[in-house]
Amino acid sequence: MSDLWLHPSVILLLGGALLPLVPSRLKLGYLLLVPLLVFARTVAMSKGVFGEVTLLHWTLTFGRVDSLSLVFGYIMAVACAIGTLYGAHVKRDAEHIAAWTYVAGSLGTIYAGDLLTVFLFWELMAFSSVFLIWFRGRTESLAAGYRYLLVHVAGGLALLAGIMLHVHATGSWAFELFDVGHPSLASYLVLAGFLLNAAVPPLHAWLPDAYGEGTFNGSVFLSAFTTKTAVYALCRGFAGMEILVALGVIMALYGVVYAVLENDSRRLLAYHIISQVGYMVAGVGLGTQMAINGACAHAFAHILYKGLLFMGTGAVLHMTGRSKFTELGGLYTRMPWTFLFTLIGGLSISAFPLFSGFVSKSMIVSAGFEDHKLWAAYLLMLASAGTFLHTGLKVPYFIWFGKNNCQPDTWDRASDPPWNMIAAMGIASALCIFIGCYTPYLYAMLPYPVAYEPYTSYHVSETLLILCFTGLGFFLLLKKLEPTATISLDLDWPYRMGGRVFLWLARKPVQIADNLVGEIYRAGGLVPLMRSARLVDVFDRVVIDGVVDGFATSFRQLGQRLRSAQRGALQENLAITFGTAAVAVVAFVIWY
Amino acid sequence: MILVRLINFLRDRLRLVIRLCLGLLALLVVIDLLPFLVDKHHAHTGFEKLPGFWALFGFGGCVLIIVASKAFGKAGIMQREDYYDE
User: Fold this and answer.
1) Are residues A522 and A476 in the same domain?
2) pTM here?
3) In this complex, which of A340, A488, A500 lies closest to B77 when CB atoms are compared?
4) Is the ipTM, as predicted for this complex, more than 0.90?
């Protein structure tokens, strides 16, 4: 290694590894310090290629810093700081370590210059983020976590296979734009890996499944990193790939349709991640400078307002233990601040003028119009009406107003959350409004020069008309939107039910074989068996029992001791082990 | 708290608030029609120059999304909450 280039992921991984050693009175300061150091590191970075490490016969590039990785690195660091502040009162160190390792994976992917490094950090993200689901501790979250892992391992394998084929064909490990005009099998496999993480249908069902089941603060992290890192990877590798426009538009509408049906507020927001990432994927597909700028700007804005929305609904979950509309309602007198911040998030995602979505989403739609893809642009406009309908209206209305469905204990527990959660929501809200009001802040960071002005009289008027008349439709059709205690089947059905078919198949033949053996044994072997059994019986009672009983007692005691050690801490142990291993690998690679 | 008081104040005058909102909607449509306030030079397609196009788009889109999604959900997508339980 030629020069010492400090990777921000190293700060996070080391910071996480040292966290259990920090005395508890210093913990809060330490939890805030580490993400701020990471943020400072991403801001202080200069462009260039750093951290090249030669291992055996190939070179890993850990630090490719250009305008595209800079803007994504910046917003990831901001999201990490806000998310950590939001969960700063959580006592379990392993939750913070898992979250930081997850962010480290995301940052590692963003600064990676070669495909192997991309793959390593890509997997780090999947394996660390699953703990943010498991730590919720419910039986459902355990199952959802395993499904999440299963899907991501499959996506990771597609990515790895694609990388191998690509390297075999081209001889290059560099992570650059793939030949989008004539995509090979290798490009398609890599693309499939990226699209799975971006939650593009039909590879999307893991997202609402997992994010609805995450811990109250874990889902804040989840909402920011996996999909937006995938958007980064698509910007880098597949800008201008035509098929992405259609896929993006389908995503944008798909999320909207499921959001109508959804009863769980956090699953509704998860479906709207799919919808919003659809805009970005469409932008990548358009591939013009303006569209790529739009995709980056929208990812930037989206991370903040979606984090804010998950923080708002997470606060409701944290305080009341509920997230379903049919178990909430009328809470505005109990949680007014949470309502206000969630509303700001809702207005931002809906692209109201003066809020962040307005200055970012419209870049993609305008790029669509300018590229003469009118159908795409109009359908994206339709999806934005749906966005306001759900995230701007349905979520705030059915949690804080509407019919009061709260049980007495839900109502008693409901109140605004601890100061650090309020502060995190306040900061995210302020940023959402700041980005919406002062456009140069975001526009100056984008990869290409921006010649776009969102605040024209026509654009403001058009947006206000769409959104306000959507509001009118909402209130007129309020009866139809009343939440019902149902779930909606999605494309996770095949693997949720498929497992059952597999179990049935496995069970039936085994049962048949078992019965058969039993039959043969009963008919042919019974008489001689009875005779020998009498002899064995004596030997057994006299000799064996004494020995076995002694063993059994000691084993039981050992087992009990192990079980108590294992029950609560198994996942924590895994998280710590995984975090430490990750630090060791990165440290080894960097100081090799 | 001031925010709660404000909301209660508005809720006590719900009829007035609704009338004001409807007035605002009408005002938005009117403003959109005035060429010296809203310059439609930047419109991408001819449709957009029709009076109240985006208002209709927003309202129609909203109704379409709700009705179509509900029909989709009723066609077997929405199930009992214990559907996946064994």
Assistant:
1) no
2) 0.86
3) A488
4) yes
